[in-house]
């Protein structure tokens, strides 16, 4: 399960309110994209959901239970970082195993999950290599593998492809979409790239200055943008 509800959630850093109170529901199994220009609060919103930042007011619920004060590791969510967050001195296998080791999962179960993740991500032949011996795309797959083995209620991605070149980005987009098809797990994906949002999302959340301008399917936003900002950002002719 992975239904996430934000109820009047706000965030201030000191005196600066970067996210005024907002409501948002992410349905179980949905691929939701937070999109908007740089500095609009996408990462902050994702970090609030992950528990990496405390909310200033409001409530976060995960599958109905109040998660507002639950520490990140106990929320059952997995954040996928950019591939440079891998441990360079560890093999792919050890990088993927790391979160399970921290969670005290036994060796046989670790191996089972690593094999399944490696198969899903085409990494089976690379488990004994170190990140430095992999391509950018393979490294990004390892970062995703590290999230998969936690069997999370939801995956949280913060611009995971921004340090890949354009051609690789297209391929990885497709791989992440396919992974979602296969796992049917809730995914929240942050990007400032409209094309990424339009091609990957079930539901797009358009943000501007910490405010949700519109929530809808790619087609909704394209055909019925609620204002000029959304129309301009999404590239709608209206
Ligand atoms: P985005 O991910 O959409 O580019 P962010 O969520 O990173 O935007 O930032 C939203 C706003 O919050 C920005 O104005 C940024 O400067 C501010 N901000 C983010 N993190 C902090 C922080 N730790 N302390 C103070 N201000 C922050
Ligand atoms: Mg960001």
TrEMBL record:
Q: What is this protein called?
A: Maltose/maltodextrin import ATP-binding protein MalK
A Gene Ontology term for the protein's cellular component: ATP-binding cassette (ABC) transporter complex, substrate-binding subunit-containing
- What does the sequence similarity comment in the record state about its family? Belongs to the ABC transporter superfamily.
Organism of derivation: Phaeobacter italicus
Domain ABC transporter per the UniProt entry, residue ranges: 4-234
Q: What is its EC number?
A: 3.6.3.19
Taxonomically, the superkingdom here is: Bacteria
Encoding gene, per UniProt annotation: malK_2
Q: Does the keyword Membrane apply?
A: no
Show which stretch of the intact protein is covered.
1 to 238 of 335
Q: Name one GO molecular function term.
A: ATP binding
User: Which UniProt keywords are given for this protein, alphabetically ordered?
Assistant: ATP-binding, Hydrolase, Nucleotide-binding, Transport
